Amino acid sequence: MDVVEYRPERDQYVWTFGGVAPSHRITPGTLLRLWTEDAFSGRLTRVTDRPGDVLDMTEVNPQTGPFYVEGAEPGDTLALHIVDLTPARDWGASSTIPFFGALSTTDRTALLHDPLPERTWIYQLDRAAGTVLFEATSADVRLELPCNPMLGTVGVAPAGREVRSSLVPDMFGGNMDTPEMKPGVTCYLQVNVEGALFSVGDGHYRQGEGESCGTAVEGAMDVTLLVELIKGAPAPLWPRIESDTHYVVVGSSRPLEDAWRASQVGMIGWLGELYGLDRLDAYQLLTQISESPLANVVDTNYSAVTKVPKALLPAGRAYNGMHTHLREQAATL
Amino acid sequence: MDVVEYRPERDQYVWTFGGVAPSHRITPGTLLRLWTEDAFSGRLTRVTDRPGDVLDMTEVNPQTGPFYVEGAEPGDTLALHIVDLTPARDWGASSTIPFFGALSTTDRTALLHDPLPERTWIYQLDRAAGTVLFEATSADVRLELPCNPMLGTVGVAPAGREVRSSLVPDMFGGNMDTPEMKPGVTCYLQVNVEGALFSVGDGHYRQGEGESCGTAVEGAMDVTLLVELIKGAPAPLWPRIESDTHYVVVGSSRPLEDAWRASQVGMIGWLGELYGLDRLDAYQLLTQISESPLANVVDTNYSAVTKVPKALLPAGRAYNGMHTHLREQAATL
Amino acid sequence: MDVVEYRPERDQYVWTFGGVAPSHRITPGTLLRLWTEDAFSGRLTRVTDRPGDVLDMTEVNPQTGPFYVEGAEPGDTLALHIVDLTPARDWGASSTIPFFGALSTTDRTALLHDPLPERTWIYQLDRAAGTVLFEATSADVRLELPCNPMLGTVGVAPAGREVRSSLVPDMFGGNMDTPEMKPGVTCYLQVNVEGALFSVGDGHYRQGEGESCGTAVEGAMDVTLLVELIKGAPAPLWPRIESDTHYVVVGSSRPLEDAWRASQVGMIGWLGELYGLDRLDAYQLLTQISESPLANVVDTNYSAVTKVPKALLPAGRAYNGMHTHLREQAATL
Amino acid sequence: MDVVEYRPERDQYVWTFGGVAPSHRITPGTLLRLWTEDAFSGRLTRVTDRPGDVLDMTEVNPQTGPFYVEGAEPGDTLALHIVDLTPARDWGASSTIPFFGALSTTDRTALLHDPLPERTWIYQLDRAAGTVLFEATSADVRLELPCNPMLGTVGVAPAGREVRSSLVPDMFGGNMDTPEMKPGVTCYLQVNVEGALFSVGDGHYRQGEGESCGTAVEGAMDVTLLVELIKGAPAPLWPRIESDTHYVVVGSSRPLEDAWRASQVGMIGWLGELYGLDRLDAYQLLTQISESPLANVVDTNYSAVTKVPKALLPAGRAYNGMHTHLREQAATL
């Protein structure tokens, strides 16, 4: 098994999907051991830091990559298996950012209010307990919350010659900010350009569904990935995720109902591929078994998730058993 | 404990929140043993039934009630504890309905497409196994799905002199269609008119999050409720639900992000009441712990849910321990 | 010609569509000479008045009516011709209202901001010049704006047993807040209940498209209407307006694209009725000739307008020439 | 005055904003005489042509340019004055395209319907009469519609390292598809990258407000532009347009209310710059004078327009009289 290790220096951070030369060329089957900087590019470290003072909004969500996958062609499907996510620091940060967040006026939901106040929270990580510590400033509330590492941003170069900011989620994946992107899952992405050119970043030590204020418990992350390439399968269109327990589709758009509709139609397609159900039967089945946890309602596009539990379904072999194959491989590491 | 039993006859069904005389006057503390007809008013019984032929769309979601609660005044909070929900028939029904559903053109998302085809599914209930049976028509797929009874519709008379169809969810509750409305929870609703005038209906034997096609596994239900009245608490504005494990707020509006925002701001208010957190701290905490499963994306208003797990929070006593009190009472029955 | 004059006393104001007994029973062909109070129920009279202090939000948009039209049955079409609108006072008022308006957080677009400041503007009417005077407080800007009287609220009792606040626009008409509702036009509304039970109110001396802050130049109005009833025509579904120069359809929903889609599909239907165009041809023609001025982006539902200019179309006879007939009748008064 | 003439060959067409080398380097003050191919890249020429057969959806909206403006730096404002638009062919084309258009399911408003039927309309141009001819296929309707040439797409390279498809409108301008972009207006765009790198394309011989089916009367265009650069003015954020009669701001986002809100807040800012009004006074004035014709409800982002008539306002000198200056220059040509 080829193994590539990569810890980008600050001048190697990448801020877009598409538009930059690959950091590495890898073959399908490669194991990646990566490090990703946090969404704030490491600039928010104390509760007294104000995003408006220390952040450069054109340099957030730094990506590690992109990786050129040998043999990947438009129409192929890239499989990224998250073997492990381990916090690379002993603390994470979160903050309200002016004119950003689901419950704030923004450049899109443009209203006449002044921005909400800026406040920064630092979460100390307790590795033994597996928790991060929330500390309120307005009341005597300190809460140990489970540390659930995930990647906010996983994506390939977009279709149609586009280059998109690493703040954006869309069909190419990107900043989907869903807690589903966690260790043990396989993410399937449609290849749009030769080499796929995927990258990852924006590690979260923990995130609620919706990422209300726009920033999770953001933290640098040690990321272990297995990379595979699938030829000859129908292109997934929207990003798909497979875990041991669920099939997941992520749709990203606005308004939020359109993001969700995209994920639903995507899942109806997947159920059809897996079980031969026609559109109406798959629609009906989905109506009764869909889990619909929101991902984020804060990014340039909102992201909504449709999940179905494998336990309720017949045995299926998505992508010819790719997820099981990658799980087995990961177990040997 | 006062006990009221009520199985409305067909001519006693109620189709609105507000605008009708109470079926009963009850005192706080009353136990209700009710029967509710299914959302189709019992008119869809076979897979060959077509909604367009057999349904009268002005007579769907029949309500049992309304109940006038003695002493209830505007600004009070009504507490409805769902002691038990038991399917009252051995089968449930679901169907695609022309110009209805999340993935169909509707009278609002008005497009130029012909309606999707009508199809009806009948789910047989296996009481011993606790399952309902999904049977596809396009493939040889039969799936036993857990029976998870819930109420689609729980509401009081609206504010502002309005009378709303039992198809509508809004601040008064109504057709929220959330799987959170299940046995063991307490629903808190703001009283808008003297007597509160609440009713229930639209039992589901099972529903996915989002209720994609617009109809769950719809079935008649035996409903056991405990009714209490809370004086002197801040009005909840949007419906709240408390279970042994979660605090829940349901927002209903369009677009879907607005429904979710309402539930989020509602939860921030509740966290403030419970723990003294200011808006920013509650916003931050919610960002990291919110569960955001969609309720429905099909009704006149969409309904979105914000949940927080009690296990992550300090001990709280919402409404002075009302839920615990009702749980204990229910345990004595 | 029957003539009915009516100036309601304060205790005769009506706050809903549906749910109240008619003020009058009239026959088709009746001329109505009405007076309507302003949207603030006359409570905002000076620039020092603060809506939060003086308004009762359950008593805004008072309606004059409702009128029971003899012979009107569900499925019929009511034709209301606006003969004249004359300001009944020499001033109008506008104001920012906390948590209301298109560029403010509201109970639906629920954010964490404090409300925008309250400010009240009084517009003096110059009857000779036909203008109202805008006076800024933050700069030395005084502008004479044309007085263009219109009715914010024209509606019938809703379908489905509902009763809706006079703040709401929907299929029944209501608080559409469109500058199209001006002297010389005929408004066609689908009759939902026996007698139609229509009412009018919410006069504006002037309003921009979108009614950004939520309140136009609000003023009491002398209203002259001709009432007719159309039997046997296809029900219009969404409100239609005919002027000497345009056909207009008003859709009301959220998000705003759905309001507009409803008005577009409504117009495609009307073009089909008028000229025998099929859906695709009408869609194409509309694509090239639609005028799409927004009505309001502030009410419970947003209202969007689709207009087509008669000058670009073949001669048509909507409703068998009803508008021309009513124009001629009005000319004799 | 420098004059540059440019008629790109097919292999010189550009499909994005950003991401391509300039076709020309020009100085401020240059006159451009350009030719733009139609949105279909000239591939739709007969009513029997089906978009699904003849179009390559990655090669639509070909741009002429981009032009590097010497001296243009981020934060500057580019002024493009449209001196003249003359149809370059004697016919234009429009079509329904599968899964595209405001009244069709799309990849975003993802529903389960089959696509609407494809149909193509060819509009013959009568240069003498100044009309284009609509010919229905479903009825005997032929209509001479005024030819009102406009540009669908005018934009600069985006901020944040992004490259966007020429189908997209956003802050950088792009595919706004507004009838306001017509001869005699000046468009102000915020410069995001050195040289601005603007391009134009997507000529329409006529378009309704909203561009319902997604394609106007699309036609090749001879375009005459004057280019100027403004230093030291506040960046406009969203595209602004000035005509002899109106100030216009175009917002582009989803849902449609957010596009409109962006245009409204943009106009409030402009009114503040022009007249010193504070936010509340500008909000109030806009409420009474805004014209809000929709631009398109079909693109990747929807575009909404806020216009205010100069006739109602005090004399103003936007950008130090730039529009008047360019009008005068154009008059000398």
Automatic annotation (TrEMBL), chains A, B, C, D:
InterPro entries: FmdA_AmdA (IPR004304)
The name this protein goes by in its record: Acetamidase/formamidase family protein
Taxonomic lineage of the native organism: Bacteria, Bacillati, Actinomycetota, Actinomycetes, Pseudonocardiales
